[in-house]
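Marked as duplicate of an earlier ticket. Keeping the data here for the record.
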Amino acid sequence: MVVLLLFFLISGFIEIKQLINKKYWHELKISSIFLSITLIFLLLYIFNMPLPNPAKFIEYEVKDLFHLNYK
């Protein structure tokens, strides 16, 4: 558990440091969002909490995008 979290944090800091040094601000924002979402899922998994099913979200978005959710 601790090793997994430590690995995640170290890899995140390395990635963020490189983006800051190269001044890739937009990529830093997007990377930070994905790292935050991943950290939330990791913590939910570590503490044996129920994880949301991403397939339901994707199905809803695709139906909404193609206007398939009307009756």
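See parent ticket for discussion. Helices lie at 2-21, 25-46, 54-65.
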